[in-house]
């Protein structure tokens, strides 16, 4: 059992150059004053938005071996688990094994699952990964943070309207038993000019949802790493606010801070014309987000 301050294990990708996966998530958590350890599922030269990249994915045995080193040295005393990009079904099963091991050591472990499968209707991973997430990982998480494509794939509910997104969220909660679902990058505006976030909290006893929406302008640039950054900031603000996932208000406030911080990073990145998130230059916005966008009650 970990008796000290919060300690996060982040299981995601790593790049030498740039800011995606653990490269941005661990930094964001540390800026918020939270200790975070990185367990890397792949090690690439750069993110896949470039013409080419080099590197390898950790095979399942390597992934477990690194974790086992933490375990054997008494270092696996984590209060929170965050997972993102995992390339194969076999590696994903190792993530489940890691979760089970940590949960056995700390019954209060909080797991935030960002099921990185794809975006804009396109898969980033082999198709069998979808089933492993649905059948073996969802039930472990307290908070799910899929984008629209991932929510559709995991719930089986096509999303064209806000009502569809609510139904997809409810199906994800039914499949997982989680306390909250936050669906990001919803494109519900026919013109495609607005991105919507839908938050649903199921922690009020009867499992009926309390919902909120946050809407932001869609910026004209193919950013990479925004989902990784958002999930880590959301977790970070939940930790720093001492928030319970049973509280819809706490989830909403954490989402507002995370969204506004991400928007500040994206606008600075766009202004610089950079292929990489201007994360270092935006560190003060991560700590104190400019609160220009607030949530509203979700009406379907």
Describe this structure in words.
With 300 residues, the chain is an alpha/beta fold. It is 39% helix and 20% strand. The strands form 2 sheets. A 10-stranded mixed sheet has the order 3-2-1-4-5-8-9-10-11-12, with helices on both faces. Helix 1 runs parallel beside helix 7, helix 5 packs across helix 6 and helix 7 crosses helix 8. The longest helix has 25 residues. The mean pLDDT is 95.
Q: Low-confidence segments, ≥5 residues, pLDDT <50? A: none
Number of helices: 9
Query: Kindly state the mean pLDDT as a whole number?
Result: 95
Q: SSE string, helix = H, strand = E?
A: EHEEHEHEEEHEHHEEEHHHE
What shape does the CA trace take?
globular
Number of strands: 12
Rg estimate, integer Å: 18 Å
Q: How far from one another are the termini?
A: 43 Å
Side-by-side strand order of the widest sheet: 3-2-1-4-5-8-9-10-11-12
Sheet with most strands: 10 strands, mixed
Structural class: alpha/beta
Percent range for helical residues? 25-40%
Strand fraction band? 15-25%
Write the layout of secondary structure elements.
Blueprint: E1 7-15, H1 22-31, E2 35-44, E3 55-57, H2 60-72, E4 80-83, H3 89-105, E5 110-113, E6 118-119, E7 122-123, H4 128-137, E8 143-144, H5 148-155, H6 162-176, E9 180-186, E10 194-201, E11 210-217, H7 226-240, H8 248-272, H9 283-287, E12 296-297
Parallel strand pairs: 1-2, 1-4, 4-5, 5-8, 8-9
Antiparallel strand pairs: 2-3, 6-7, 9-10, 10-11, 11-12
Helix pairs in contact: 1-7, 2-3, 3-4, 5-6, 7-8
